[in-house]
Hints:
mainly alpha; 5% strand; elongated; 14 helices; 68% helix
Amino acid sequence: xxxSRATRASRILAVVRKELVDSLRDRRTLLVxxxxxxxxxxxxxxxxxxxxxxxxxxxxxxxxxxVGIRNAPALAAFLERNQxxxxxxxxxxxxxxxxxxxxxxxxxxxxxxxxxxxxxQGTVRVVADRSRDRAQPAIRQVETLLRAYxxxxxxxxxxxxxxxxxxxxxxxxxxxxxxxxxxxxxIILFLVAFYGLLASVMGGMAVALDTTAGERERQSLEPLLxxxxxxxxxxxxxxLAVASFNAxxxxxxxxxxxxxxxxxxxxxxxxxxxxxxREFFRFLVVLAPMILLIPAVLLYVGTxxxxxKEAQANVSVLMFVxxxxxxxQLFLQQREPAWLVMVPISGQYMxxxxxxxxxxxxxxxxxxxxxxxxxxxxxxxxxVARLLSRESILAGR
Length: 397
């Protein structure tokens, strides 16, 4: 029995070596896959950081064009004390706002001084194109300053009449944030979770298609089926080779994030972003089921495709569905049920978010996330083995 097992193991390892050598022989594809894995995510992350930092700088150094600001000298003085640079708005300010040349314009009504003197409300208008994301920080800052001035002015008017300003504001609200520094930074670091998950999905795609549909089109599958290795042994060897390459891509992707977040001169965004060796290891543990499952599914899809082009089309549909799951979870903004951890992709995304927030992952959760992927791996490999045992597989039927 032990000799039989050793023979099976040697056959599987021989297939693994063969597939790895074939993959490494195509150096251009290998280099493109690894460079893309290492660079794409960190580059996108740096761009996001710079976008947030530039918007913060625009909000801090607010330059506010205004119309009729002379009608409200006290308001102008308040804004200047809060480091707002006031300027005269051009006559065609609405066109410039629509074109994106200006972010926001403050318009003070011509009757502002008269209305205030008569005890009526003074009118100011915040004119902006709110469909432009880059203008949002400036718009929010202007509105915040106007609300602060409104409260201050109202309190002063009450004091002049001998009334406590707290009469109109009986409720005092203190903001208590229970988030740890890492949890505060994890909002943007969800991008790391998505890219880590995407790497486990995309890493072995090219190799899996080449070792199934590609080999059949090159007519190199028939000699492999004529070897003493059984179909299940062939499939297991191919799966281990693809999973090894998939694991390499995931490690390179996470290493790119680790190096970027640890050593790159990123702009300040107001929150710490932690991705230490601890998070690196936790990511690998959480993504392990996907690193093993996706290659098995890709082998099945690639084997079922009658041509390489059909296999690519089927894989693209599979990739679309898989990558949409985290996006749906993100946009639903609902608390995920506990059982969702057992669902492939969704469960891994949940656990990656916990890792980024610095929260502990319960062993039961981690074990539950392994169960369904392990079962699907077995089902997929057996399915591929059955397909390879058919004589029609060489004809692409």
